[in-house]
Amino acid sequence: MTAEHSRTWRPRHPTDLWQTVGTLRRGPGDPTFRRGADGAAWRATRTASGIATVRYAQVARDELRVDAWGPGAAECVDEAPGVLGEADDPGGFEPRIALIAEAHRRNPGLRMLRTARVVEALVPAILEQKVITLQAHDSWRSLVHRFGEEAPGPGVPVDGGARRPLKVAPSPDQWARVPSWEWHRAGVDPRRSRTIVTAVRRAPRLEEASAMTPADAAARLRALDGVGEWTAAEVAQRAFGDADALAVGDYHLSNYVGHALWGRDMTDDEMVEAMAPWQGHRHRVVRLLGLAGVAGKPKRGPRMPFVDHRAI
């Protein structure tokens, strides 16, 4: 099926498609984002012009292509270079130590993506608060399947030649109308569902944050009851292209960084102090550690428990 709008371009710096855009996927079963059998990244999104399906492809090492379908297709094609990190500038990044320098050398195509979709990033981030990731992904998948809408376009090619349609996540109005029992059915406790409903009712104000400075954007997000430093950072990493958005408050991150770089457990405050030399690129450092395969803390400590909120 021929795309309604397309664009091919050569980015101004090396760009690895999957290293850059893969963080948008909320688990392997995310109905809004899939990797096709053709190797392309397929995404369903909601723009000011309407819903759209977008296909990002790495045509060559130095060439990218976007195809899009639906009312929001033209908008998605216009913004594609920004989504895939065109504005990311690692020029001032100083690796400082050999481990990070080698990871940076081996992964020159890592870019910080920028979707400029605040609510799109915020809702799944809230779902991931204080629960294990698999549980949050299950909730996201369940809610999008139940309350989202089928994305336009041909569907994602899967093995065997079939195509599977994507789903577009609910609009702010649709999120606000999800009944309390449906949140419960999806395993979402009242605190997180209340935070989401409060947030989507302020969607226009939140979307303004994509044009703000990082500090002002974080302040706008954190003004919401139930949105703290961790959640604001998770949004900034995806919606704002913020290379410095360190997810302070993450259940594992401080110990991961502590063991990866200094061989010991760390508190959040100690991590923030220790990461100060990389100010401006702290999220980039965390991504590079992951791409380098650094294990971090040995897996001997307690794990966050699974809490089935449907049984409460």
Description:
This protein is an alpha+beta fold. The protein has a domain at 1-86: 2-Layer Sandwich (TATA-Binding Protein). The chain is 40% helix and 13% strand. It has 14 helices and 9 strands. The protein has helices spanning 17-21, 73-83, 98-106, 118-127, 133-147, 172-176, 180-185, 190-200, 203-207, 214-222, 229-240, 253-261, 268-274, 282-291, and strands at 5-9, 33-35, 41-47, 50-60, 63-69, 149-150, 156-157, 163-164, 167-168. The chain has a 5-stranded antiparallel β-sheet with strand order 1-5-4-3-2. A two-stranded antiparallel sheet has the order 6-9. Strand 2 (33-35) and strand 3 (41-47) form a beta hairpin. The longest helix is centred in the middle third of the chain and has 15 residues, at 133-147. Mean pLDDT is 93; it is low at 301-310. GO terms for molecular function: alkylated DNA binding; DNA-3-methyladenine glycosylase activity; DNA-7-methylguanine glycosylase activity. This is 3-methyladenine DNA glycosylase/8-oxoguanine DNA glycosylase. InterPro entries: Alkylbase_DNA_Glycosylase/TA, DNA_glycosylase.
